[in-house]
Design a protein that fits this description.
The complex is a heterotrimer of chains A (about 300), B (about 425) and C (about 290). By secondary structure, chain A is an all-alpha fold. Chain A folds into 2 domains: about 50 residues, no CATH class; about 200 residues, MetI-like fold. Chain A has 14 helices and no strands. The radius of gyration of chain A is 24 Å and the shape is globular. In chain B, helix 2 runs antiparallel to helix 17, helix 10 packs across helix 13 and helix 10 crosses helix 20. Chain C is mostly helical and about 290 residues long. In chain C, helix 4 packs antiparallel against helix 11 and helix 5 crosses helix 8. The two termini of chain C are about 25 Å apart. The model of chain C has no long low-confidence stretch (mean pLDDT about 90). The chains are: A mainly alpha (about 300), B alpha/beta (about 425), C mainly alpha (about 290). Chains in contact: A-B, A-C, B-C. Chains B and C meet through helix 3 and helix 20 of B and helix 4 and helix 13 of C.
Chain lengths: ~300, ~425, ~290
């Protein structure tokens, strides 16, 4: 990963006009990127009367924590007023098994495709590759019907299945590209030692897949957490993920719009991927580069 | 020994089965109901159904789905019916929305219940017609709603020194006066269906019921190209100048609330708006003025129905029977419709307790000054195309009425 | 040692779940979708054959036309905006500046957030009554109006802009990695020859980074075709239907408008369009290399 090496631009000079210009641009850009986050935070600590005055960029004068507690435990979606916390639980319930399964399956695929060259391997690879780029709308309706047939539509296993299905292309690609770079001699040696398919996978491949597993986990955790479309269509009323709950809360037709509650709920929804981002640091960038086919 | 063991096992199985049956009997009247009544007033109304159903031994399982004027709830219910996991009952608008479910044999034929309770003599014939196919009844109508009301704030009109309008010209005079006062002249919601509702207000109020029937029922393209229809388009287009920029993202009840709280002068909305007034202890007809289809005073017969998907479980079917019966009990009808701001579907329900607006509506119904709702006349598909056209015209001032008429003619002409 | 055939067999067995997914969830669904698009189905699939009737209707539908136009506008703003802003940020970050890590973190964090969150935040900031417009008016500029979000002819631009905010960091990250790979000697040579830096970027560095640019464009283009969440969150397709997009068209007709034949026709058009554009690139990118390698 080249991003970790030193910058190779022109040598720094004294503080010239162009240096000032560079910093001015960067600071300006940073302000642009931070502004929405700032607005979200200040809005979430304001009272509604203060918001009505229309000073969206101002700091809260009448600081309150109430929007947060409302967003967490009392905000309504339809007639249910249990807040966004329901969605948090659902999102974890969906994300953990879906991420685990799709990573495992992706790793098996990548390993099988790069070392064992099974019959039809190229076809699998081609379909998955194309599948990563095609708009999901093409798959949706038949998938609804298929899942209904096996009683998985609108269930937790159903939405997990959908995430595994559509996480498969990127995961397969990720692991295939990683394993392709593993020296084939290592694999051959293991085979001469009598290692079978699964032995080699679990005892040789997985232990040396640390970095790519981290990258895969980052991609899947943020990707599944941020999903809206699948959750909306496949999760069913009892398992709606946080993104869908959030949109429902914002669009629920009771009383006037509580922008402060909405913003608190929005921050809560963004929290998990943001934590992943800040904790993972450079790994996140690596994930972007590695998962370059992610849709 | 062997036989004995066998009998023993049989005994266990039998007692198990008995236990199961008992458990089922206990949960017998459990019914999951999908609906989209999620605003404050609607929620209060649907609670009346829930209370009555539970009081007679049922267990109402609420599956409210918010959003899109019922789009999301209908999608949810239809997908579950098709997916083989149907709810006990689900809401539709009176009209063609559930036709295809009927023709695919997915809904229960309610004739036996209708016979038992004598519904066919008691229910308003327009509605009975709308819920029947080939003489068989497939849905239970629960309320009559008119979409074509104009609500106004008497206080703001007084402040602006104008009278409640009698004609569309009056309305524009009033709107101008309100604009000068610096209040929102016309409170309009952002969702496309509310804009379509406003359009039908203009179409029936300005154009009259004959024009409406010619266009929607007879699909008469010449009527769309007539000067009368052009006038409708022009009037509708003119309304664009009186909405505020807060329209986008505003829900219907928030728009209505602006009028209720004297922050805006007028709002076009169905009579379910009264539910919101009730919630704020305002009296419809007094604190908030009502005009049924400004211009040509007309009532619109639409509303809501419940359909009952075919089920296999006997206990669940029993629950459906009970629910259907409860929904149409006169007492329940009255309690529900009062909160909902609607008119009961039964002919013999007394009307003297109703508010002034409902009285006006009933009078129009009796006189025969009514039209069937657009959902009764046209398919959801065509209805959707009209909504698209109306909404894109209403939110983009660069579109001309002439252009609107041409595109409308294309939709009607099929 | 087990015979080779047996071990190959276990590889095949391991791929069974993937085969099932590929056959049913990918190939099967696509074929099924295309099949339905040639029928007259409404809520339920009906397996008659009506030729291209649904496609005719689709291309005459103003909602579809608007959706496609919006996709083009959104796409242009989003892709060009991300590329320009991302490139500038990458170049400026590559000037041995202090606090590079902090800047980089700030530029990229929106990408960790969902389009739903992005849409909601920007809808709030751009709120025509309480957002930027009101704030600027409160600051004393009373005539200031910025109500594009409630204007049918402008709202889609703002959606593109919000999308750019979310994804520009992605381009920055990709291009910065590329810039770090540019040979130091090129800069030395340029300085010796007295060529101004901007010329070096324009005529030497950008062409060198072309594969990075292609990757970025492909990534962004996929996001464009799939755009749905941000529209739902930011405008709900409104005002009116002025910010509808094809993906939303399909979902609406599939689940709300009860016309699955028209919906699948629209989905099929999207599918074919993506196939035509991306097919050659994908082939080039993966399979030609493969052949070369083996």
């Amino acid at each position: 990963m080249t991003a970790e090496t030193q910058p190779r631009g022109r040598k720094p000079r004294r503080l010239t006009a162009s240096r000032i210009g560079i910093y001015a641009f960067l600071v300006f850009a940073a302000a642009f990127f931070l502004l929405p986050f700032y607005v979200m935070i200040v809005t979430s600590f304001k009272t509604m009367p203060e918001i009505q005055q229309g000073n969206i960029f101002g700091l809260p004068t009448d600081f309150t924590l109430k929007p947060w507690s409302t967003a967490w435990a009392h905000a309504c979606t339809g007639v249910n007023c249990e807040g966004i916390r329901v969605g948090v639980l659902n999102s974890f319930e969906i994300m953990i098994p879906a991420a685990t399964l799709s990573i495992l399956l992706g790793a098996i695929n990548g390993y099988a495709l790069s070392f064992w060259r099974p019959r039809g391997g190229n076809l699998i690879f081609a379909v998955l590759l194309l599948g990563a780029f095609i708009p999901y709308q093409v798959y949706l309706y038949p998938l609804v019907r298929m899942l209904s047939k096996v009683s998985l539509y609108n269930t937790l296993p159903g939405i997990i299945t959908v995430h595994v299905i559509f996480g498969l292309p990127v995961m397969t690609l990720l692991f295939r590209n990683y394993y392709v770079a593993v020296p084939v001699d290592l694999f051959k040696a293991a085979r001469i030692d009598g290692g079978g398919f699964w032995t080699i996978f679990f005892q040789l491949m997985i232990p040396m897949s640390g970095p790519i597993l981290v990258v895969a986990a980052i991609l899947q955790v943020t990707g599944i957490w941020n999903d809206f479309l699948f959750g909306l269509i496949f999760a069913g009323r009892d398992h709606l993920p946080m993104t869908v709950e959030l949109n429902n809360i914002v669009n629920t037709t009771t009383g006037t719009k509580a922008y402060n509650v909405n913003m608190a709920a929005t921050i809560l929804t963004a929290l998990v991927p943001l934590i992943v981002y800040f904790v993972s640091g450079r790994w996140f960038v690596r994930g972007i580069a590695a998962g370059a086919v992610k849709g | 020994m062997q036989a004995h063991k066998g009998r023993h096992a049989l005994g266990i199985a039998a007692s198990l089965a008995l236990g199961l049956a008992a458990a089922q009997a206990q949960a017998a009247e459990k019914a999951e109901v999908i609906h989209w009544w999620t605003s404050g007033g609607e929620h209060a109304a649907v609670k009346e159904f829930e209370k009555a159903f539970d009081a007679q031994g049922g267990k109402w399982v609420d599956a409210a789905v918010a959003g899109g004027g019922g789009d999301s709830a209908r999608a949810d219910g239809i997908n579950r019916i098709i997916g083989g996991n149907p709810p006990a009952a689900m809401q539709f608008n009176t009209g063609k929305q559930f036709d295809e479910l009927v023709s695919n044999g997915l809904l229960r034929n309610l004739d036996p219940l209708a016979k038992e309770y004598g519904w066919k003599d008691k229910i308003n014939p327009v509605l009975l017609n709308a819920v029947s196919q080939d003489g068989h009844m497939y849905a239970v109508p629960v309320d009559i709603h008119s979409n074509i009301w104009l609500w106004y704030s008497p206080e703001l009109l007084k402040k602006a020194g104008v009278e409640p309008p009698k004609t569309w010209d009056d309305l524009f005079t009033d709107l101008d006066a309100l604009k000068k006062q610096g209040v929102i002249p016309l409170a309009q919601a952002g969702s496309a269906w509310t804009q379509a509702l406003t359009f039908f207000n203009v179409m029936i109020g300005e154009g009259g019921k004959d024009l409406y029937m010619k266009v929607l029922k007879d699909r008469d393209v010449a009527a769309v190209k007539s000067p009368e229809f052009l006038k409708v388009a022009q009037t509708f287009g003119k309304l664009r100048d009186y909405v505020d920029s807060g329209m986008q993202g505003r829900q219907w009840n928030q728009a209505t609330a602006l009028v209720i709280n004297d922050k805006a002068g007028f709002n076009f909305m169905g009579d379910w708006a009264k539910g919101e007034m009730e919630l704020q202890n305002k009296v419809p007809g007094k604190d908030v003025g009502c005009i049924p289809a400004l211009g040509h005073n007309t009532y619109w017969v639409g509303g809501d129905v419940f359909v009952f998907p075919k089920l296999n479980d006997k206990a669940e079917i029993k629950a459906q029977d009970l629910l259907a019966k409860v929904l149409l009990e006169p007492k329940v009808q009255l309690a529900f419709n009062e909160k909902k701001g609607a008119v009961p579907v039964l002919k013999d329900v007394p009307s003297q307790d109703m508010d002034q607006c409902a009285q006006q509506g009933l009078a129009l119904l009796k006189k025969g000054d009514y039209v069937p709702s657009s959902d009764i006349l046209i398919s959801p598909d065509m209805s959707g195309s009209i909504t698209d056209l109306v909404a894109s015209f209403f939110t983009d001032k660069s579109q001309t009425p002439e252009n609107f008429v041409n595109r409308f003619a294309q939709i009607i002409g099929g | 040692m087990k015979p080779l055939r047996l071990r190959r067999l276990s590889a095949q067995v391991a791929l069974v779940p993937t085969w099932i997914i590929v056959i049913f969830a990918y190939i099967g669904t696509i074929l099924w979708t295309i099949r339905i698009s040639f029928t007259s189905s409404g809520i339920l699939p009906k397996y008659d054959f009506v030729g291209f009737k649904q496609y005719d209707r689709l291309f005459q539908s103003s909602r579809w036309t608007i959706s496609v136009e919006n996709l083009a506008i959104f796409g242009l703003i989003f892709v060009i905006g991300c590329l320009v802003l991302g490139f500038l940020m990458a170049v400026f970050l590559d000037q041995r500046i202090k606090g590079e890590g902090i800047f980089r973190t700030i530029f990229l964090y929106p990408y960790a957030m969902s389009f739903i969150v992005t849409g909601l935040v920007w809808a709030w900031i751009l709120n025509p009554t309480l957002g930027i417009q009101q704030a600027v008016q409160n600051w004393g500029w009373h005539g200031f109006t910025f109500d594009w979000l409630s204007r049918g002819d402008r709202a889609i631009y703002l959606v593109g802009f919000a999308g750019m905010w979310q994804s520009a960091g992605l381009v920055m990250a990709i291009l910065l990695a590329g810039l770090r790979g540019v040979d130091e000697d090129i800069w030395k040579a340029a300085r010796v020859d007295g060529i101004p830096p901007w010329r070096v970027y324009l005529s030497i560095v950008i062409p060198m980074l072309s594969s990075m640019f292609v990757t970025a464009v492909v990534l962004l283009a996929i996001a464009v075709v799939k755009v749905y969440d941000i529209v739902v969150a930011m405008t709900g397709g409104g005002p009116g239907i002025s910010t509808e997009v094809p993906a939303k068209f399909v979902i609406d007709y599939l689940f709300n408008r009860q016309n699955i034949a028209l919906a699948t026709a629209a989905a099929s058009v999207m599918f074919v369009a993506v196939l035509v554009v991306l097919g050659p690139w994908l082939y080039n990118q993966y399979f030609r290399q493969d052949r070369r390698a083996s």
